[in-house]
Design a protein that fits this description.
The protein has 19 helices and two strands. The protein is mainly alpha-helical. Strands 1-2 form a two-stranded antiparallel sheet. The N and C termini lie far apart (about 150 Å).
C-alpha cells in the first residue's frame, strides 16, 4: 500500500525532499528513529510512477548540494509547482550537475528501449517503418518527464518537466483509482448476473436469497464516525491509552507523525481510520470485500485532505491540523459531507448496461482474433507440410540422379571393355608366334625349326577362328585318306 500512496507525498518534486525546516523543531530522538526506519524501508519506497527510479535518483543527487537543499526547504509549494525553483539549478555544484547529466542519459536510453519494445509489440515485427517517426513523437508526449530535445545534459527544463509530470500524475491518481474501482464493481455485478442466468429457476431463487442475506450481514455493524471529526479522533486517542476528555491536538499530532517530519502524510492519515474500518470489515467474513475496505480507506483520506489541507500539498501540517480542531464542524460535522460505501451507488443500471455491451463487443473481438489466429495456424501448418513435401521431392530427385549416374558409369565401363576386345584378340594372335619364337631360342638353345610344325598348326587354328577338329574326327579323316590312296598304289 505504501508504494502507491507515497506518490501523493510528491505534490511537486516530491516534497519528499524534506519540508522539515519550515515548521516547529522536531524531537531529535524521534527524528533519529524515523531516519533509521526510513533506511530499513529504502528498498520498498516506490512512488508507483513509471519513472520512479529516475525521480528518486534526481532528488538524491540534488540533496547532496547543501545550498539547493536549503532553498528547497524554504520554497513555497506553489513556487515549486510553478518552476521558480528550477532556476536555482544553475547554482548547483559541478559534480552534482555531472551526476544529473549521467542520470538523464541513462533515463533517455531506458525510454528509447521501452519505446522500441512497445513499437515492436504493436507492429508485430522488428525494424523501422513509416509510422515509426509518429511513434517516436508520441513517445515525447507519453514520457514527458524529460526534455528529449537535449538528450545529453540535465538542464533547467528537465527539472521543470519532472516537477510538472509529478504534479500532473498525482492530481490524476485518485481519479484513476475511482474509475478502476467502478469498473471492479461493475465486473463483479456482471459476473453475478451471468451466474444467475446459468441456473434454473429454483437455484436462481436460492442464490438471490443468499446474496441478499450477505448484504444484510455486511451492513449490520456499528455506525462509522465521520472521518477527521472529534468523535473519530477521540476513539483513536482512547485506543492510544488516554481519556477522551484529555484529548490534545498537538500531542495527538506528534504521536501519529511517525517519521517526525512535521506532517501527516497520506499513509499516516489512513492509519488513523483503521479503527473505523474494523467496525465494517472482517477479512474472515465472506460478505466483506477487502477491496472495498481499501477504497473506503482512500475515500476517508481524500475527505480529510479536502477539509483540512488548505495549501493542497496532499499532507496535513501541524498548523492545519490544530486549526481544523477549532472549527465548528470538528465537533458537529455536516451529515452528508461524507458518504460511506454502504450508502453509495457505484453505477447506474444504464452504466452497467453500456458496460456489458462493451464487454460483449470486446468478447466478440477476442473471438474474431481467435478465429484469425486459428486460420493462420492452419495456413502455417499447410505451408510447413508443403515445404516438407518439396524437401522430400528434392531428396528423392537427388537419390534418383545419383543412381542414374552409377548406371551410366557402369554402361560406359562396359562399352570401353567391348571396344578393347579386338585389341585383346590381336594380342592373343601374337602371343602364339612369340611363344614359338621363344621356344626356338630356349630349351637349351635348340633350333627353332624343331617347333615349326607346332607353330603351323597353331597358326592354322587361329586362321579358321580357332575351330580345331576333335582328335578322333581328325584320325578318321586321315584313315579315309589313306584308304583312298591304296588302289592307286
Amino acid at each position: 500500500m505504501w508504494t502507491v500512496r507515497r506518490c501523493l507525498l510528491l505534490a511537486a518534486l516530491v516534497v519528499l525532499v524534506s519540508h522539515d525546516a519550515m515548521l516547529a523543531p522536531v524531537d531529535p530522538k524521534k527524528q533519529k528513529a524515523a531516519e533509521n526506519e526510513a533506511e530499513k524501508q529504502e528498498e520498498s519506497t516506490d512512488t508507483g510512477l513509471h519513472y520512479d527510479s529516475y525521480l528518486q535518483e534526481v532528488v538524491k543527487a540534488l540533496e547532496t548540494d547543501p545550498e539547493f537543499k536549503k532553498k528547497l526547504q524554504e520554497a513555497d509549494i506553489e513556487d515549486i509547482k510553478s518552476g521558480k525553483l528550477s532556476a536555482e539549478l544553475n547554482l548547483v555544484a559541478h559534480n552534482v550537475r555531472t551526476q544529473l547529466d549521467e542520470l538523464k542519459r541513462t533515463e533517455i536510453s531506458r525510454l528509447r528501449k521501452l519505446q522500441r519494445v512497445r513499437m515492436d509489440m504493436q507492429n508485430g515485427r522488428n525494424g523501422m517503418h513509416q509510422g515509426d517517426l509518429r511513434d517516436v513523437k508520441k513517445m515525447f508526449q507519453d514520457f514527458n518527464h524529460v526534455d528529449h530535445s537535449n538528450p545529453k545534459s540535465f538542464e533547467e527544463e528537465d527539472l521543470n518537466k519532472l516537477i510538472q509530470a509529478v504534479v500532473e500524475d498525482l492530481e490524476n491518481y485518485d481519479q484513476k483509482r475511482h474509475l478502476e474501482f467502478k469498473r471492479y464493481e461493475m465486473v463483479k455485478e456482471h459476473q453475478r448476473r451471468e451466474k444467475l442466468n446459468q441456473l434454473n429457476e429454483e437455484e436462481r431463487k436460492k442464490e438471490q436469497e443468499r446474496f441478499e442475506e450477505m448484504q444484510r450481514k455486511h451492513k449490520d455493524h456499528p455506525k462509522m464516525n465521520h472521518p477527521g471529526s472529534k468523535d473519530q479522533l477521540e476513539e483513536v486517542w482512547e485506543a492510544d491509552g488516554f481519556q477522551r476528555e484529555e484529548f490534545n491536538p498537538r500531542t495527538f499530532f506528534d504521536m501519529h507523525d511517525q517519521d517526525g517530519n512535521g506532517y501527516l502524510d497520506p499513509m499516516e492519515l489512513e492509519a488513523l481510520f483503521q479503527k473505523e474500518l474494523d467496525k465494517v470489515y472482517d477479512e474472515r467474513a465472506e460478505e466483506d470485500d477487502l477491496r472495498e475496505m481499501e477504497e473506503e480507506r482512500a475515500r476517508m483520506r481524500e475527505h480529510v485532505l479536502r477539509e483540512v489541507d488548505t495549501n493542497k500539498d496532499s499532507m496535513v501540517s501541524l498548523t492545519e491540523f490544530v486549526d481544523a480542531t477549532k472549527r465548528k464542524d470538528f465537533d458537529q460535522p455536516e451529515e452528508n459531507s461524507f458518504e460511506p460505501l454502504d450508502d453509495t451507488d457505484f453505477f447506474s443500471e444504464q452504466e452497467l448496461e453500456e458496460f456489458e455491451q462493451q464487454l460483449a463487443k470486446e468478447a466478440a473481438e477476442l473471438r474474431q482474433k481467435e478465429v484469425e489466429l486459428a486460420r493462420q495456424r492452419v495456413e502455417h501448418q499447410q505451408k510447413r507440410q508443403q515445404l516438407q513435401q518439396v524437401v522430400q521431392m528434392n531428396q528423392e530427385q537427388e537419390r534418383q540422379a545419383a543412381a542414374q549416374g552409377e548406371d551410366t558409369l557402369k554402361f560406359e565401363t562396359n562399352q570401353e571393355s567391348v571396344q578393347a576386345a579386338p585389341g585383346q584378340e590381336a594380342i592373343q594372335e601374337a602371343q602364339p608366334a612369340e611363344t614359338a619364337e621363344h621356344a626356338g631360342q630356349g630349351d637349351g638353345g635348340k633350333p627353332a625349326e624343331m617347333h615349326e610344325p607346332v607353330a603351323a598348326v597353331a597358326g592354322e587354328a587361329v586362321a579358321v577362328g580357332g575351330n580345331l577338329q576333335p582328335e578322333g574326327q581328325a584320325g578318321e579323316e586321315q584313315a579315309q585318306h589313306q584308304e583312298a590312296q591304296q588302289p592307286s598304289a
